[in-house]
Design goal:
alpha/beta, TIM Barrel, 11 helices, binds erythose-4-phosphate
Length: 226
């Protein structure tokens, strides 16, 4: 499973992309509006941080297929690189997906809550579908189970569409999503940190430092290689 950053925050994106193996960034209108700044400079800044080869998924706000297509063209021109327009699934969104794909622009169909939505989105030409794991769990549905169903369907029908699982609130959901066969997960900067944190790891590192220092003092491995 590959990892993307689910954020519109420049500082957080800079930090996570410096230290973690990320494939790209996803935003949505909620994440962008939290930043309370001009939309286009923000998106361009994200592109400059992650580079042209990383995937940037940016959501449209238009309501009709024709307007969604216009926004997709404008966004692609503005941000360039590996770009995917995020479109919430509905009839206009599906129509837009086929039109946008025909122009060679990438499509991520988002706000996916069922495997049938995902299958139909894939048939409409979506490159990615984004099932919302935590929002499903919140309503006593099965977020990870839905991801597993979608991954299985894409496999059964040999579809190229990838599962970009989204909406996570804890590391357990991310781990189970990986086992369920998701190709990618987009997660918040906080969850990246939590995913690699463990008190036993901190303890192990402290032990290594203590034992080393007791024999070699302040010298590091590098000092012996000079
Ligand atoms: C990402 O593409 C989704 O829009 C996002 O993960 C939704 O997350 P939320 O349920 O925390 O808002």
């Amino acid at each position: 499973m590959k990892y993307l950053i689910d954020s519109g925050n420049i500082k957080a994106i800079e930090h996570i992309s410096e230290f973690y193996p990320i494939e790209g960034v996803t935003t949505n209108p909620t994440l962008v509006s939290k930043e309370k700044t001009d939309f286009l400079p923000l998106i361009k800044k994200i592109r400059s941080i992650i580079g042209e080869d990383a995937a940037l998924h940016v959501q449209t706000t238009a309501k009709t297929a024709e307007d969604i297509l216009e926004e997709a063209r404008g966004l692609k021109k503005a941000v360039g690189g590996q770009f995917y327009v995020k479109i919430p699934i509905n009839e206009e969104g599906l129509k837009a997906a086929s039109m946008i794909k025909a122009e060679g622009i990438g499509v991520t169909m988002t706000a996916i809550f069922t495997s049938q939505q995902a299958l139909i989105a894939a048939r409409a030409g979506a490159d990615f579908v984004a099932p919302y794991v935590n929002r499903l769990d919140n309503i006593n549905a099965d977020g990870v189970g839905t991801v597993a169903e979608i991954a299985e369907l894409f496999d059964i029908y040999s579809l190229d569409c990838k599962v970009l699982a989204a909406s996570f609130k804890n590391v357990k959901q991310i781990s189970e999503t990986a086992l369920a066969g998701a190709h990618c997960a987009t997660i918040s900067p906080e969850l990246f940190r939590q995913a690699i944190s463990h008190p036993m790891t901190d303890n192990a590192i402290e032990g290594f430092e203590r034992d080393w220092k007791s024999v070699y003092g302040e010298k590091g491995v590098g000092d012996f290689l000079l």
